[in-house]
Amino acid sequence: QSALTQPASVSGSPGQSITISCTGTSSDVGGYEFVSWYQQHPGKAPKLMIYDVTNRPSGVSNRFSGSKSGNTASLTISRLQAEDEADYYCTSYTSSSTLVVFGGGTKLTVL
Amino acid sequence: EVELVETGGGLIQPGGSLRLSCVVSGFIVSSNYMTWVRQAPGKGLQWVSFMYSGGATYYADSVKGRFTISRDNSKNTLYLQMNSLRVEDTAVYYCVRRATTAWHFDYWGQGTLVTVAS
């Protein structure tokens, strides 16, 4: 069981927007601005998409955005494209001895 | 250009040992926070070990006492020595740079598969 809770799957049609949630506690997501999101295509390494809740690394499309409210962080992908179909993972710093916690991952299907 | 290349994975019997290597180009390993992250087949991500630029090391409880992270500054290479391997250690192991003074992982290797089975 992962420390951060993500939906197992989400889906959307090309051009639509989807949001993936990531729920933790006040010891991780809610207590710090250290939430990041990763995209992973099958057989590939994860790729950083969002860091520090809302920041996009250079080269990542502005269709990807992050936010946080209380103990839940969210990744929104707008104007869905076929290439967005992948697994998405959230992570957060935690004040526990675990240091970093991951979500269980969400499979995005573009219909 | 930044590149992290892991080697050393393979099939090993329970109780055995393996050493993973991660050769880095594009930045200096000893000046950065380095991490090993693993992913069991069909499962999510799990951090295994951190090494800070100052040399401090941290381990997940599941590997503490069995795994050792280290680096060779002259070779700009990160290592993970894995002893007393268990079936549940089976995973793809990624060498990853953690952003300094932050908690996100910005550069990842392609991963190396470790299979622990009899």
H/E element sequence of chain A:
EEEEEEEEE
Low-confidence stretches of chain B: none
Give the radius of gyration of chain A. Answer: 13 Å
Assembly state of the chains shown: heterodimer
Along the chain, the helix and strand elements of chain B come as EEEEEEEEEEE
Strand proportion of chain B: over 45%
**What integer is the average pLDDT of chain A?**
95
Number of strands of chain A: 9
State the end-to-end CA separation of chain B: 40 Å
Radius of gyration of chain B: 13 Å
Helix content, binned percent of chain B: under 10%
Beta strand count of chain B: 11
- Shape descriptor of chain B: globular
- Report strand % of chain A: 35-45%
| Main sheet attributes: strand count, strand direction, barrel closure of chain B | 7 strands, mixed
End-to-end C-alpha gap of chain A: 28 Å
Secondary-structure class of chain A: mainly beta
How many distinct helices of chain B? 0
Coarse morphology of chain A: globular
Q: How helical, in percent, are the residues of chain A?
A: under 10%
Q: Name the average pLDDT of chain B.
A: 96
